[in-house]
Amino acid sequence: MRSFCWGIDGVDDQATDASAWNEGVRPWPTMENLVKKGLIEKVEWVGHEDGWLYQLTPLGRNYMREVMGRV
Fold it and tell me: Where are the domains of the chain?
């Protein structure tokens, strides 16, 4: 879920597999697990460099707000 954070004061609604790699996390199956939990959804295939584009669901956005202390 760190891929959906930007800076210290915000949440980004979208992230790709590449951004998960940048956070030091292997995107698959991690991102797929978040899809199964309903926190994110697959939006589109961006390409071989970036992989899938994911978007926070309302549940995922609420989760991120709670984690970041912004309820």
Answer: 2-67
Rg of the chain, C-alpha, whole Å:
11
What pLDDT is attached to residue 52? 95
The pLDDT of 44-70, averaged and rounded, is 91
What is the maximal distance between C-alpha atoms in the chain?
A: 36
CB 4 within 8 A of CB 11: yes
Tell me if residue 21 falls in helix, strand or coil. helix
Nearest residue to 52 via CA among 40, 60, 64, 61: 40
The helix/strand/coil state of 54 is strand
Quote the pLDDT of residue 6: 75
| Contact predicate 16/56, CB 8 Å | no
